[in-house]
Amino acid sequence: MPQITVDYSASLESSFDRRAFALALHPLIVETIDSKIEACKTRIRRVEETVVAAGAPDDAVIHIGIAVLPGRTPELKARLSEAVLDLVAGHLKAVDGMVPIVSAEVRDLEPSYRKR
């Protein structure tokens, strides 16, 4: 915990500094929800095709999902989501004609969550 997943459109390959983002994200999470840096695990997945609304050819999406142990207030989770969106902006270079849709979600892990 936290379990972090970053999905990003392939068209952002050269403009999204994923590793630097993840390395900056971990301390942000620790600071915001009082976790431990050693607990942060991020999987970054390139999405080959993204279609938004009518399907413009330059559609681009970044979605960050953060799953945490239950007990955080909705307000704290919303504050973390906002901070994550702000952080992405610092790791994403502008690409002519492309306006990526960036979203973040913080949710509770299910009670069945186990770790070894």
Question: Can you walk me through this structure?
Answer:
This protein is α/β, with parallel strands linked by helices. The protein has one domain (3-108): 2-Layer Sandwich (Macrophage Migration Inhibitory Factor), CATH 3.30.429.10. 28% of the residues lie in helices and 26% in strands. It contains two helices and four strands; from the N terminus they run βαββαβ. It has helices spanning 18-33, 74-89; strands at 3-9, 41-47, 61-68, 101-108. A four-stranded mixed β-sheet has the order 2-1-3-4, with helices on one face. Helix 2 (74-89) links the parallel strand 3 (61-68) and strand 4 (101-108). The longest helix is centred in the first third of the chain and has 16 residues, at 18-33. The protein is elongated, with a radius of gyration of 15 Å. The mean pLDDT is 93.
What is this structure, in a nutshell?
The protein has 116 residues and is of the alpha/beta class.
Number of domains: 1
Helical segment tally? 2
Would you identify the CATH H-level superfamily? Macrophage Migration Inhibitory Factor
N-to-C SSE string, H for helix and E for strand = EHEEHE
Percent range for helical residues?
A: 25-40%
Poorly predicted sequence stretches spanning 5 or more consecutive residues: none
Q: The biggest beta sheet, please?
A: 4 strands, mixed
Write down the CATH topology. Macrophage Migration Inhibitory Factor
Major sheet strand order? 2-1-3-4
Radius of gyration: 15 Å
Q: How much of the sequence is in beta strands? A: 25-35%
Mean pLDDT: 93
Gross geometry: elongated
Structural class assignment: alpha/beta
How far do the termini sit from each other?
Answer: 11 Å
Give the assembly state of these chains. Answer: single chain
CATH architecture identity: 2-Layer Sandwich
Number of strands: 4
CATH class descriptor name = Alpha Beta
